[in-house]
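Backbone-to-sequence.
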């Protein structure tokens, strides 16, 4: 799993703070989504053939699950999970099944490397049952 926990401000003064959520010099998001999820809801349960994305939690808490895909289905024997909270981020590469269960009302941002136009998203997304 590629997890970044507790991202903190890099610069703070009397005006406020600046936090670099992602600045690796390589990543080029083509889509940024702001999502609100209710406590108890489940999202994702899919993988992307080509797209990858970072998920950054603004508030709340979720349990994130992932498993490698083998022959088009998640390998449940290799499924991992982690609890993420405000200020944490997870990376989901292509061909890795992922799902989220929200433990609190949660707001989060997705930084996707490909366009999230509906046609492109549907062509790249394979729905599976991970959780």
């Amino acid at each position: 799993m590629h997890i970044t926990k507790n991202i903190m401000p890099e610069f703070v003064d009397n005006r406020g703070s600046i936090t670099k959520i992602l600045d690796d010099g390589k990543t080029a998001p083509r889509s940024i989504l702001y999502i609100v999820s209710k406590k108890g809801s489940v999202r994702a349960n899919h993988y992307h053939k080509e797209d990858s994305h970072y998920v950054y939690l603004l508030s709340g808490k979720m349990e994130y699950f992932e498993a490698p895909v083998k022959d088009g289905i998640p390998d449940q024997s290799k499924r991992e999970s982690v609890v993420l909270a405000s200020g944490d981020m997870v990376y989901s590469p292509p061909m890795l099944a992922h799902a989220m269960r929200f433990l609190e009302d949660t707001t989060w941002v997705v930084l996707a490397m490909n366009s999230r136009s509906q046609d492109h998203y549907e062509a790249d997304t394979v729905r599976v049952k991970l959780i």
